[in-house]
């Protein structure tokens, strides 16, 4: 098991940002990292039942019409695609520079492996710049799960600089001295990236059927057999699940008390509250006497009975057509969105339905001038909450007062009277409190 701090850093590279002083046990953090990596492989799509036998799938190379492995193995979501497009228009060559995020590095390494496989099965050595840690690896064959999902069957062995195994030494020597035209491909991979790759390989090898025994070289007898499938960003549901925070703004444990001054931030005990005071003090003073308005919401996809709209999240995976899957799911009864913020305030973007809205929001809210201001769209940065508040035409002014109060805030303080950012607190499965008079700084999402 990796050190606790290292697990938290690796989780963060996947977009799972737990409180630094979370009281979750080491074993739970370790398990969450494994589950998050399973999610990043979209593992349940391919390995639906265990044990997994890749031999039931055809060779990727049997059908000459298959796309290159590099193209099939690449994964990105709507948010990343938008960033790539914006970077290209600004003349930025690489919006995801190497060696700054272990998970992004891993995904780029997998594409490098896929590109090499397109040119022939070659052996790889992944090691960090200081050559302190390395992974010897060779792809044995590539199976085809579907047109978008190659399965890379491989053998691997991990070594440290001060403790290199005889098997790895013999394996490397066999290729260095070989005249077969299959030279070793060297890939620079940080130690953190290797941790993620090893976690995936070691977990996946346990999933293989004992009956699957591909041919390997004599020098690979000590190597472990495993597989890799495309790795991409976590989807919206996984982001919500793995970022789950039970309440305390410091450690994530269930909140039992709140700040007596502002009442907006909650803690599990006095120790965490005292520890957070230096950071919380500026907001605490700003929130003292703040006016909070409670509203009831419904899911975006259920705002009109019998009519289901498609809400594209920045975390929807493009290659898997998750957007179509979301539209199909919208026809089913859905429960409330998961509460990933606990009782801690968080920033939401609020947009009032308007025929003057620009960009995708105009299509999403489907408004014309006759229905301006009839509903409000509310969502957080991760889209873990993505809901609507409706104004009921048949209801009384008193019943519509919460909706009107939030609308008035956006009209007065928002950009073009259409949208603004606010502080919010989940108060129930279908309720939310909006702060009407203490606005956060303008956000860039």
Automatic annotation (TrEMBL):
It comes from Mycena alexandri. Keywords: Metal-binding, Zinc, Zinc-finger. PROSITE patterns: ZF_MYND_1, ZF_MYND_2. GO terms for molecular function: zinc ion binding. SUPFAM superfamilies: HIT/MYND zinc finger-like. Residues 248-284 form the MYND-type domain. The keyword Zinc-finger applies. The keyword Metal-binding applies. This is MYND-type domain-containing protein.
């Amino acid at each position: 098991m990796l050190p606790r701090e290292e697990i938290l850093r690796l989780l963060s590279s996947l977009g799972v940002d737990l409180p630094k002083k979370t009281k979750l046990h080491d074993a739970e953090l370790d398990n969450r990292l494994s589950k998050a990596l399973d999610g990043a492989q979209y593992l349940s799509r391919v390995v639906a039942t265990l044990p997994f036998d890749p031999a039931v799938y055809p060779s990727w190379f049997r059908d000459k019409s298959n796309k290159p492995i590099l193209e099939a193995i690449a994964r990105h979501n709507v948010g990343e695609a938008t960033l790539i497009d914006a970077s290209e228009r600004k003349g930025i060559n690489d919006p995801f520079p190497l060696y700054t995020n272990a998970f992004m590095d891993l995904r780029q390494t997998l594409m490098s492996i896929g590109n090499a496989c397109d040119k022939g099965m070659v052996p790889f050595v992944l090691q960090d710049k200081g050559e302190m840690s390395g992974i010897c690896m060779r792809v044995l064959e590539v199976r085809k799960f579907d047109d978008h999902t190659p399965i890379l069957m491989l053998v691997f062995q991990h070594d440290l600089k001060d403790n290199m195994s005889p098997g790895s030494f013999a394996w490397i020597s066999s290729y260095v001295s070989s005249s077969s035209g299959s030279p070793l491909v060297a890939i620079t991979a940080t130690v953190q990236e290797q941790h993620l790759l090893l976690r995936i390989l070691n977990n996946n090898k346990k999933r293989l059927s004992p009956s699957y025994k591909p041919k390997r070289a004599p020098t690979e007898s000590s190597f472990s057999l495993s597989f890799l499938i495309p790795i991409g960003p976590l989807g919206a549901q996984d982001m919500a699940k793995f970022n789950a925070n039970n309440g305390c703004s410091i450690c994530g444990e269930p909140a039992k008390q709140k700040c007596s001054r502002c009442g907006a931030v909650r803690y599990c005990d006095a120790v965490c509250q005292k520890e957070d005071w230096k950071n919380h003090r500026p907001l605490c003073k700003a929130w003292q006497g703040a006016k909070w308005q409670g509203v009831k919401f419904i899911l975006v996809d259920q705002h009109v009975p019998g009519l289901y709209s498609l809400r594209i999240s920045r975390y929807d995976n493009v290659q898997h057509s998750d957007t179509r899957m979301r539209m199909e799911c919208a026809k089913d009864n859905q429960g409330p969105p998961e509460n990933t913020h606990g009782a801690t305030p968080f920033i939401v973007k609020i947009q009032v339905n308007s025929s003057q809205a620009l960009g995708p929001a105009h299509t999403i809210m489907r408004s014309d001038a006759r229905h301006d201001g009839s509903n409000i769209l509310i969502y957080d940065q991760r889209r873990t909450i993505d809901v609507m508040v409706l104004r009921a035409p048949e209801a009384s002014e008193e019943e519509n007062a919460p909706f009107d109060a939030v609308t008035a805030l956006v009209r007065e303080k928002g950009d073009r009277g259409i949208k603004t950012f606010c502080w919010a607190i989940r108060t129930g499965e279908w309720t939310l409190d909006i702060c009407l008079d203490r606005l956060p700084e303008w956000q860039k999402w």
